[in-house]
């Protein structure tokens, strides 16, 4: 509920459709494999399941100031990126293009320094 948003996604946000993400970094964590849409802009990261999986899932907006860290991880042979939000929320693990874009944005705003 903390990250629910009723704002529209900014028109200039970079869009990544049909991405994969899991909630938590442990084996067997719930996942959205190839069914999460990700948008990234200067202010925030936006998440929403693809149309078929959208019912009962609000748009989430995670402001960059609410992110503690973004770090690469390796899960078996797969390269992923773990985003750790503030407020004791579970980590979000991304793979593919959205994971790389999240890492780039985090580094561009001086994350981790």
SSE diagram, text form:
Elements: E1 14-23, E2 31-40, E3 44-49, E4 60-63, E5 67-75, E6 78-85, E7 92-95, H1 96-108
Antiparallel strand pairs: 1-2, 1-7, 2-3, 3-4, 5-6, 6-7
3D architecture notes:
By secondary structure, the chain is mainly beta. Helix content is about 10%, strand content about 45%. The chain contains 1 helix and 7 strands; from the N terminus they run βββββββα. A 7-stranded antiparallel beta sheet has the order 4-3-2-1-7-6-5, with helices on one face. A hairpin with a 2-residue loop joins β5 (about 65-75) and β6 (about 80-85). It is globular. About 20% of the residues are buried. The model has no long low-confidence stretch (mean pLDDT about 90).
Looking at this protein, list some descriptive labels.
113 residues; mainly beta; 7 strands; 12% helix
Given as residue ranges, the uncertain stretches (5+ residues, pLDDT < 50) are none
Specify the overall morphology: globular
- Compute the gyration radius: what is it? 13 Å
The main sheet comes to: 7 strands, antiparallel
- Could you tell me the strand content as a percent range? over 45%
**Helicity range of the residues?**
10-25%
State the order of secondary-structure elements, H for helix, E for strand.
EEEEEEEH
For the termini, the CA-CA separation is 29 Å
Report strand order across the widest sheet.
4-3-2-1-7-6-5
**Number of DSSP strands?**
7
């Amino acid at each position: 509920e903390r990250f629910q948003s009723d704002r529209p996604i900014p028109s200039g946000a970079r869009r990544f459709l049909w991405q994969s993400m899991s909630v938590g970094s442990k084996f067997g964590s719930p996942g959205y494999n190839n069914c999460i849409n990700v948008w990234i802009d200067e202010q925030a990261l936006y998440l929403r399941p693809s149309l078929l999986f959208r019912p009962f899932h609000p748009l989430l907006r995670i402001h960059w100031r609410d992110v503690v860290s973004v770090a690469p991880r390796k899960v078996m042979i797969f390269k992923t990126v773990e985003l750790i939000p503030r407020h004791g929320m579970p980590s979000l693990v991304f793979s593919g293009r959205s994971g790389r874009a999240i890492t780039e944005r985090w580094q561009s705003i001086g994350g981790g320094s």
